[in-house]
Each structure stands twice: as structure tokens, then as C-alpha cells.
Amino acid sequence: MRLLHTSDWHLGRSFHRVNLLDAQRAFVDHLVRTVREHHVDAVLVAGDVYDRAVPPLAAVELFDETLHRLAELAVPTVMISGNHDSPRRLGVGAGLIERAGIHLRTDPDACGTPVLLADDHGDVAFYGLPYLEPALVRERLGAAGAGHTAVLRAAMDRVRADLAGRPDGTRAVVLAHVFVAGGTTSDSERDITVGGVAAVPAEVFDGVHYTALGHLHGSQAITDRVRYSGSPLAYSFSEANHRKTMWLVDLDGDGTVTAERLDCPVPRPLARIRGRLEELLADPGLDRHEDGWIEATLTDPERPHEPMARLTRRFPHTLSLVFEPDRAPEDPLASYASRLRGRTDQQIAEDFVAHVRGGAGPDEAERAVLTAALDSVRLDEAAREVTP
Questions:
Q1: pLDDT of 197
Q2: For residue 35, which of 56, 70, 142, 315 sits 20 to 30 Å off, Cα-Cα?
Q3: Partners of 5 in the β-ladder
Q4: Exposed/middle/buried for residue 333 (C-beta within 10 Å: 0-12, 13-18, 19+)
């Protein structure tokens, strides 16, 4: 059976104020063309269909158009909700839509109920695991712990229990929206850390033949059987070096997996350039970036006059301008942003406590309070997204 694995469409998202709807529509055209030309048997969409719980009307219209086009191909589609989606909203009409071959899986209680498709070798069971916010689904799934690993284990226990009752030779595919240990992140993924731990081990998915992951925006293989498709478009300059693709996966009759990356259309290449303004304006080595979307980091000791206006004369699609003056690290004017780069919310909060106390950081009890406060904010946001 030939599968097309994609995820993280983020319909409705912009890129530094640039409307990406046309680029997302071009991706849908490419998706439909790929399904037809490569004789795909099933399309897998591993979450974050939309960019936010209440998407703009234009994004909803594009999604509706996409569902119609996939249904017209008579190729089944299995789709789960991600942490950006509202499961309740995305799942509206799922029972009716299923009649057209579009299988929306947004209910955690249905983790162990597969979509059954068949080829010449027998059945393939597709299990959709929507994004599982631990605090919201722990009790429903009977998880042994409070973290992501615990709820994923509980969901996969349901998957394996169902699979054990099916005929020998039934192949199994899982769709999940989660951060798996070993994955490479980018700046455009929303933090799903709760209790300080977000990553789950790949071994959670043992016992199935292929796991189609969503959440991380870079295409990557955690193992031969556990893969992220990545987002079809770049949503931050941290993705400048990404190759945006989908996975074309062949699942043989004995469960053997082979996979090939298929490139997605690129609206404009991304580039990060860095240096003093006059150097950037004169460097012939940057000619290749003149038609791309640009993030320029200026290192001039003093802010130049009208830097954006001057940059856009050479690089008309400059979208982001960052100032990081060349100064000694001990200089009090050194960039605050550079000191925060790569640090978690918890680390920043703890550093602030140490700063206002003259160097004395939080003790264990205070650290626990900070962790609980940060988790509460994330959980409130997650709860809003599951409420219609």
C-alpha cells in the first residue's frame, strides 16, 4: 500500500506579515497532483491542519476545497488534530465526511478504533492519535502518569490491544502529533512542554509498522518506521535550510517500509544574512539572495540611518531586521535577545528571580511554583482550543 505522509499545513498562517494563502493553495494543488501521479492509496495528515483554534474564513474555505478535491480522487484520507487545532471544531461533521473517504480523528477516546483499508495483501489498520494534552486526557485514557510519555503509552496500549484481536498479518499505521526524543526543532513550533518534559521515546510506538508524525517542522526520520514529514512551507527563518517535502511510503505485504521524500513547491527561498550594513549592500556573494525572503542581522556598533529602506533597495523582500551590535560580552549594551536565545521559559524565569535577588536563584519549592505557573498558562491555552 502506498501512503503519502504530510502534516503541519497551518492553514491561515502568515510569514512575517506576508499572507501565505496562495502558497498554501499551491501546496494543495501539488498534493492533489502527487496523489494522482504517484498512484497513492491513502493520504495521511498528522495534525496542525490549521494554525489556530479559530482559523480565518479564507483558511476554512481552503480546507473545505481541499477535502472536496481529495474526495473526488476516491483516495482515502486519514487526518488527526494537532496542538494548534481545535479538535471539536475540526471534528465537526466527521461522521458525515467519513462517507466520502475523509477520516477525521480528533477524539482521544477513539485512539484504539482504526480506519481499516485493504490491499491485495490484506488489511491495514490506521490508528489516529490526535494531540494528547496530558492534563486534559490523562484520566480518560487511564494513563499511569501525568506527562506526555504516560498518555502516549496509554493510547498505544489501546492500539496494540485492538491490533492483537485482528487477523494475523494485519499491518498497522499510527498517526500522532507529538515531540519524539531525537527530533530537531525549529522556532515556529509551539512549545508543548508540560512539567518540564515534552519529548517521548520512539519506543512508545513499538509494535506498529509505520508511525506518521506531526509537530516538528523539519522533515526527518527518527527511525526507519517513525518519521516526521515536516511542514510543507517554512514558517520561520530558522527553517531557512529545511528541504520541504512529503514522505511517499510503500508498505509491503510483510510490513516492510520504504520511503522517498517528494519536494514541495517553494514560494520564495529563505536566507539569513549577517554583517555590517555597508558590507551587506556591497557583497557580491549575496547576489543569489536578492529575490528571496530575507532576515538581516546588522552588527554595526551603532544603528545605521534608515537601514530597512537601504536594505530593501537591494533585497526587496527583506522581512526581518535584527540588531546585534559587535560588542564585548561584558558590555552592558550587549543584545538582550542574544542572552535569551536558546533558553526555555523556565530558565528565563529562574534567571529573573536570581537577577532581582542579587544572584540568589529559586530554591526547589520556588522552582516548582514557577513550573506550575508556566504549565497553567499552557494548559489554559490548550483548554481554550478544545472548547467550541
A1: 53
A2: 56
A3: 44, 247
A4: exposed
Please report, to the nearest 10 degrees, the dihedral formed by the alpha carbons of residues 135, 382, 350, 326 taken in order.
150
- Taking 50 as the pLDDT cut, the residues of the chain under it are 194-196, 386, 388
Q: With beta carbons less than 8 A apart as the criterion, state whether 155 and 141 touch.
A: yes
Residue 365: CB atoms within 10 A of its CB come to 7
Dump pLDDT digits (tens) for 52-86: 999 999 999 999 999 999 999 999 999 999 999 99
Strand, coil or helix: 154:
helix
DSSP of 205-267: GTTSSEEEEES-SS-EESSSSEEE---SS--SGGGTT---EEEEEEE-TTS-EEEEEEEPP-S
C-alpha cell at 169: 498479518
Residue type, 214: G
Q: How many C-beta atoms surround the C-beta of residue 52 within 10 A?
A: 17
The three-state secondary structure class of 195 is: coil
Determine the Cα angle at 103 with ends 264 and 137, to 5°: 100
At residue 90, the pLDDT reads 92
Position of cell 542581522? 297
Helices (H), the chain: 21-37, 57-72, 87-90, 94-98, 134-141, 148-164, 277-282, 307-314, 336-340, 345-356, 364-386
Nearest to 130 by CA among 89, 183, 189, 72: 89
Domains in the chain and their CATH numbers? 2-263 (3.60.21.10), 270-383 (no CATH)
Dist. CA 242–CA 234, nearest whole Å: 8
Cell of 186: 525549529
The CA-atom distances, in angstroms, between 121 and each of 25, 273, 314, 367 are 35, 52, 58, 55
Q: Compute the CA torsion angle 116, 119, 122, 126 (nearest 10 deg).
A: -30
Alpha-carbon span 46 to 226, nearest angstrom: 12
Task: State the pLDDT at residue 153.
Answer: 96
- Give 289's contacts (C-beta < 8 A, 6+ positions apart): 269, 271, 273, 315
Residue 114 per-residue DSSP state: P
Looking at residue 276, its pLDDT comes to 97
pLDDT of residue 362: 87
Instruction: Give the pairing of strands 14-15 and 18-19.
Output: antiparallel
